[in-house]
Amino acid sequence: MLTDTLTPASLAHSHFDRLMVRVLMPLFAAGALAVGLLWWLETSEGKISEVNRWAYPVMLLVFGGCLAALRRQPRSVRVVRWVGFLSVAVSQLSDLALHLLQSGPLIGNYNAMTLITWLPLVYAVAFFMLEGGHAVWSACIVLALVSAGFTWRLSSPAGHADDITLLVNVLASHAVFIVCLSGWLRMKQLLSRQQGVTQELRVLAATDELTGLSNRRHALERLERLLQRLPGDHPPVALLCDVDHFKRVNDELGHDVGDRVLSEVAEILRRATRASDTVSRWGGEEFLIVLPATPLAEAGEMAERLRLRVATLSSAGAAQNCGGITISLGLAAHQPGEALAAWLRRADQALYRAKAAGRDRCEVG
Q1: Between the CA of residue 69 and those of 62, 78, 79, 88, what are the distances in Å?
Q2: How remote is the C-alpha of 35 from its chain's centroid?
Q3: Domains, in order of start, for the chain
Q4: Which of 50, 285, 298, 363 is catalytic?
Q5: Are 221 and 317 spatial neighbours (Cβ–Cβ below 8 Å)?
Q6: Is 285 a known active-site residue?
Q7: Cβ partners under 8 Å of residue 189, min gap 6
Q8: Which parts of the chain are beta strand (E)?
């Protein structure tokens, strides 16, 4: 509902997780297909490494398990992201370790060159799957392990002179890759923070500070959009309500009690209306409720329910000294071709008649 208290910062994470589920499912499916294809291709050509003999089936199981987890339990997306990264990292580093233990130059070795070509995938997966500092630290740890492996090979009997050139190029390209990804991540964080601030400002500009309902300006914007796309079945109905004798509450009990009364009335209106309805603080002690595509008789029944619920309100007990809290309501169904101002004016006139007739009642305009 429009009137719910909005917290963009707290909602951003859940929205991001939902988006990740939609992105990761086809990616895991594509990854499983690619691993299966590589497994079949390398096996048929007799070029599969010892590590890949077990790594490919394990990765297929991991990707399949991640797909099943995302489908059955979308909230597991954070665990799935770590599992996806670790499976890729472990398989690639294990394959690298196997080749570093072999004698002879790495250049010219089909499997070794294929592995080195795919190693940057680990960094890309780290920055895509993980968050902020986790991605940077994970990528740096992988780079440190790759550096340590190459350094050990150069100092071991298995090392080869041609490996030095390969080592320098691999480490330099990987370091540049991590720096570029870190810059991209930083820019993404800054943009996300800016969007969060912008969204918070939009919410603050559209929300009444005291009640948490939408304010008059935002309500008018919503009504303008509503009138531009009116449904054909039933026109919308405007309910304008006013807290009876509110000035007396403020004068006799103080503005703190008056603010509490307004907040409690707003909460009753919010809870008693539907998700599709617009509830706003219209000004002072007045509230506007707009019911889209609602028969007038049904709107009248809702107005009566609202009136009865507010009549049971006791704010700090002291409000009962003023005879309790009641509201008066004026209803008006939108007429074909009617301007927004004219429509709301008829609701206001109906509210005036309800107050003139003794208050604590509903009138239809």
Answers
A1: 10, 11, 10, 18
A2: 32
A3: 8-203 (no CATH), 216-364 (3.30.70.270)
A4: 285
A5: no
A6: yes
A7: 132
A8: 237-243, 278-283, 286-291, 327-333, 362-364
Q: Tokens 């940057």 belong to which residue?
A: 120
Buried b or exposed e, range 1-17, using 16+ CB within 10 angstroms = ebbeebebeeeeeeeee
pLDDT by residue for the chain (365 residues), tens only, comes to 444 444 444 445 566 677 778 888 888 888 889 888 988 988 888 878 777 788 888 888 888 888 888 888 877 888 888 888 888 888 888 878 877 887 777 777 766 777 777 788 888 888 888 877 888 888 889 889 988 888 888 887 766 777 777 777 788 888 888 888 888 777 777 777 777 677 676 766 778 888 989 888 888 888 888 888 876 667 899 999 999 988 888 888 888 888 888 998 999 999 988 888 889 999 889 999 999 988 999 999 999 999 998 888 755 454 555 667 889 999 999 988 889 999 999 999 999 999 999 999 999 98
